[in-house]
Amino acid sequence: MRDTRVALPADDPEDLDPFTRVPRPGERLIDHAITGPSWARATISDAVISQCWVTDADLASATFADVTLDRCVFKGCTLMGSNWNTATLRDVIFEDCRLDYSTFHAVTTAGPAAFVRCSFTEVSISESRLTRVAFDQCRLAQLEFENCELQGADVRGNDLSDLAAVSGLRGVQLDQTQLLALAGALVRELSINVTAD
């Protein structure tokens, strides 16, 4: 996607064995297909998930703690209200996923990651290092970055007019068409009064 190249899992999801339970703490999950509601409201901790396809899965209110995702695709998943605490992403794609009302804390992109046509309504991202991430055609309504390192993060192709805090975007890549929307959001954030001459 644009300048971001994300490696897909080696196998198609149809060729992978299904995985229908919650991973145990410390478990390594490799070469599986995950679907359905088995991870909804689950706690996945100290796990490595690699070379997996997570398709049309319900992960609402799930907690991911000390998790590494490596060469995974999340497609058409519901992750509303999910909680990510100390997660590492490497070659991960989220496509057509709903992450509304989720929290991300201490998340790091150790490799490229991409969010394509995802919804981030009222999402909080804090203390994270997302320097190798790209967002494309995502809904970012009231998305907030707090104390994040975003140098080089690519947010081109997104409407930035309704971000909760524009000042958190320090170092991101924009295109010229986004500047006007960004200016309006900054005026609101700083409570600036603009008067006509």
Architecture overview:
It is a single chain. With 197 residues, this protein is mainly β. It has one domain (13-189): Pectate Lyase C-like. The protein is 6% helix and 35% strand. It is built from one helix and 13 strands; from the N terminus they run βββββββββββββα. Strands 1, 2, 3, 4, 5, 6, 7, 8, 9, 10, 11, 12 and 13 form a 13-stranded parallel sheet that branches. The protein is elongated. The termini are far apart. The mean pLDDT is 92. InterPro entries: 5peptide_repeat, Pentapeptide-BTB/POZ_domain. Pfam families: Pentapeptide (PF00805), Pentapeptide_4 (PF13599). This is Pentapeptide repeat-containing protein.
Record the SSE blueprint.
Layout: E1 17-18, E2 28-30, E3 32-36, E4 43-45, E5 48-50, E6 53-57, E7 63-75, E8 83-95, E9 103-109, E10 113-116, E11 124-126, E12 133-136, E13 144-146, H1 179-189
Parallel strand pairs: 1-3, 2-5, 3-6, 4-7, 5-7, 6-7, 7-8, 8-9, 8-10, 9-11, 10-12, 11-13
Short account of what is shown:
By secondary structure, this protein is mostly beta strands. 6% of the residues lie in helices and 35% in strands. It holds the Pfam family Pentapeptide.
Beta-strand content bin: 25-35%
H and E string: EEEEEEEEEEEEEH
CATH architecture label: 3 Solenoid
Structural class: mainly beta
Runs in which pLDDT lies below 50 for 5 or more consecutive residues are none
Domain module count: 1
The main sheet comes to: 13 strands, parallel
The radius of gyration is 17 Å
Q: What's the CATH class, please?
A: Mainly Beta
What is the residue-averaged pLDDT?
92
> What's the CATH topology name?
Pectate Lyase C-like
